Amino acid sequence: MTFEEKKEAYARLLVKAGVHVRQGQRVAITCPVEAYEFSRLVTKYAYEEGALEVVTEFLDDVTMRMKLDYAPQSLFETFPAWNALRLNGYAKEDTAFIHLVGNDPEALKGADMKKFSAYIRSMHEALQEYYKMQSTMGFKWNVSAVPTRAWAGKVFPNENPDVAMTRLWNSIFATVRIGDGDPFPKWMAHADDLAMRSKRLTEWQFDSLHYTNSLGTDFTVGLVKNHRWEGGADIDKTDGERFFANMPTEEVFTMPHRLRADGVLKSSLPLAYQGNLIEDFTLTFRDGAVVDFDARKGKEALQAILDTDEGSRHLGECALVPYPSPVAAEGVLFLETLFDENAACHFALGRCFETNMSGGAEMSDEELEALGGNHSANHVDFMVGTEDMKIVGTLQNGMKITVFENGTWAF
């Protein structure tokens, strides 16, 4: 394929596999303003698949930073009612959401994170319907990426801007299986493989997992009873069609028990969070909560995450990713969690996914929390996996099974 043909194949893939647009469905796209040309490609293929309407919201790091620098704290404490009505309404109408990310990893460096934390809290409160439907697969949604010059310049700082953009495009193509031939059947086969591993792990019903590696991670996490491992494609409750919430995706993931996490987790990759880089950080857990933390860089941003709400100090996701994944094989630090989380095993601070517990999608937040689920305005993934990661699972009867050895699957 030529470079332009790969772009077109990628746009078609997001529409056809990412959200599986059906006849008469509305599609909502969010996209960096710089990437408007690619958003037009996605729009074109969505209409060709039968979309009723495609609406696009363009986002800009620079103006968001201006808002944080100049707008008063009070602005961030209330999410606009009109915007909540729009997004909650789209969700209830079974709109397909495509979120194209391409943020400058350091756009918000030095910004007032108290304002940003207030914004996250108010948004989560106003969009409860949206987030509930999203986490229970009440509509189709996809998060994928498109290069921007600021992002490419951070990933490839020694290249001129045009070369950096091309290199980032090519790395994205590789991680989403764009190359010779139609990528759609490749993604269906990939989904089947992840589904097989998820099924096996769910059948084992581990009581806990113990993580160790040479970085200094020595950590045990308990899993909720009747947990479900998921990975690859999701199923839309409305039409039963498969879709991919993330592209790329190499993980299988489940629900940790919010009160059962003990020990030390060492980050294996930097965390790019809302324009801040958090590097070489350590989280110490006791009885499920972060009781101590440190970071070589970005400690203030890490503290802002942890202080967002009570649930932000507890875990909401436990994800397994084999070290030699297509993302890791690129040898690139993307500085974007969508990619970096698919290069290594990771956890998430904050909100759990209800579908990771049998019957969880039908439970209230209070019912889920009583069984070990976690409720929060945040869901922040951070990477801990390494080439020498070992993970040993303990079954309900005390029997131990090695799940990961030398950074990859042991079964």
Number of helices: 14
Please give the radius of gyration in angstroms: 20 Å
Give the low-pLDDT segments.
Answer: none
Overall residue-averaged pLDDT value = 96
What fraction, in percent, of the residue positions are helical?
Answer: 25-40%
The rough form would be described as: globular
Kindly state the number of beta strands.
20
The biggest sheet, with number of strands, parallel, antiparallel or mixed sense and barrel status, is: 9 strands, antiparallel
* Category by helix and strand content: alpha+beta
Number of domains: 2
Instruction: Please state roughly what percent of the residues sit in beta strands, choosing from under 5%, 5-15%, 15-25%, 25-35%, 35-45% or over 45%.
Output: 25-35%
Whole-Å distance between the termini?
Answer: 36 Å
Write the layout of secondary structure elements.
Elements: H1 3-18, E1 26-32, H2 36-48, E2 53-59, H3 61-70, H4 73-76, H5 81-92, E3 96-101, H6 113-126, H7 128-135, E4 141-145, H8 149-155, H9 161-175, H10 183-204, E5 208-212, E6 218-223, E7 230-231, E8 234-235, E9 242-243, E10 252-254, E11 256-266, E12 271-273, E13 276-286, E14 289-297, H11 299-306, E15 315-320, H12 326-329, H13 337-340, E16 346-350, H14 365-370, E17 379-383, E18 390-394, E19 400-405, E20 408-409
Parallel strand pairs: 1-2, 1-3, 3-4
Antiparallel strand pairs: 5-6, 5-18, 6-11, 7-10, 8-9, 10-15, 11-13, 12-13, 13-14, 15-16, 16-17, 18-19, 19-20
Helix pairs in contact: 1-2, 5-7, 8-9
Structure explained in plain terms:
The chain is of the alpha+beta class and about 400 residues long. The chain has two domains: about 5-175, Thermophilic metalloprotease-like, CATH 3.40.1830; about 205-225 and about 250-410, no CATH class. The protein is built from 14 helices and 20 strands. It has helices spanning about 5-20, 35-50, 60-70, 75, 80-90, 115-125, 130-135, 150-155, 160-175, 185-205, 300-305, 325-330, 335-340, 365-370; strands spanning about 25-30, 55-60, 95-100, 140-145, 210, 220-225, 230, 235, 240-245, 250-255, 255-265, 270-275, 275-285, 290-295, 315-320, 345-350, 380-385, 390-395, 400-405, 410. The strands form four sheets. Strands 5, 6, 11, 12, 13, 14, 18, 19 and 20 form a nine-stranded antiparallel β-sheet that branches. Strands 7-10-15-16-17 form a five-stranded antiparallel β-sheet, with helices on one face. Strand 19 and strand 20 (about 410) form a beta hairpin. Helix 5 runs parallel beside helix 7 and helix 8 packs across helix 9 (about 160-175). The longest helix has 22 residues, at about 185-205. It is globular, with a radius of gyration of 20 Å. The two termini are about 35 Å apart. The model has no long low-confidence stretch (mean pLDDT about 95).
